[in-house]
Amino acid sequence: METLTKIVEHLDDFLQISAYVDDSQNGLQVAGKREIKRIAGMVDASLEGFEAARDAHADLVIVHHGLFWGKSLTLTGTHYARAKVLLDNDIGVYAAHLPLDAHPEVGNNIQLLELVGAELVNWFAEYHGKPVGCIGRFTRAHSLSAISELLDEALRTQTRVYDFGPAEIRTVGIVSGGGCDALTACHEQGVDLFITGEARLSAYHLLQEYALNAAFAGHYATETVGIRALLKRLPTWFDVETMFIDVPCDL
Prior knowledge:
- This protein has helices at residues 4-14, 47-55, 77-88, 98-102, 108-116, 144-155, 183-189, 203-210, 219-222, 224-237, and strands at residues 2-3, 27-30, 35-36, 38-44, 60-65, 92-95, 119-127, 130-143, 160-163, 168-174, 193-196, 213-216, 241-244.
- With 251 residues, the protein is an alpha/beta fold.
- The strands form three sheets. Strands 7-8-10-11-12-9 form a six-stranded mixed beta sheet, sandwiched between helices. It has a five-stranded mixed beta sheet with strand order 2-6-5-4-13, sandwiched between helices. A two-stranded antiparallel sheet has the order 1-3.
- Helix 3 (77-88) links the parallel strand 5 and strand 6 (92-95).
- Helix 2 runs parallel beside helix 3.
- The chain is elongated.
- The termini are far apart.
């Protein structure tokens, strides 16, 4: 077994937790057992997810969307119910939001880029001076339908597609989750396709006016890949078991 302190210190360094300005309170959010044998990963801090971690005898949970966001929360209602499962079972919680989106190896965006088969050419979509999205180029042109089908199969999702741009896709910009703020940056970078998780009302007209294709593959679905990639790394660093807890919530 490994110590919680050792794992947290390694994750803080590997994910460069302190380098990002983020509403999420990244890092260790709930202290649990001092010695860690089993780590569960999930996208969202939720009662269903924490109960599944408890039933799987996890000692530590790593989440992308954590319990604490920018302001203090009282331990009442749903927040109390989630915390109670953790505290009653001595389960720790470690959160990594933007640091996991933007990581150059296990991040959601680089993992999505590898998934669709494009080669990294640049990072873009800055948030407080740090780029979180990536731009890639295909070695040969792809159709929008082929990329959409690949996302659907690999992520077990139903991609919503807008075909306002070129019929042949050679470049792609990716920002996982709720990435519509990067639409203008995609246009400025001249990419053929924007891949993100969820749409927003203003996106339709911007895409049409920018003549830009878009694939909305689900906020949850596009942010499963980073956690999964990180879980694969953990047993190479520590004497631990890992598991992914799947709690789909895309509407």
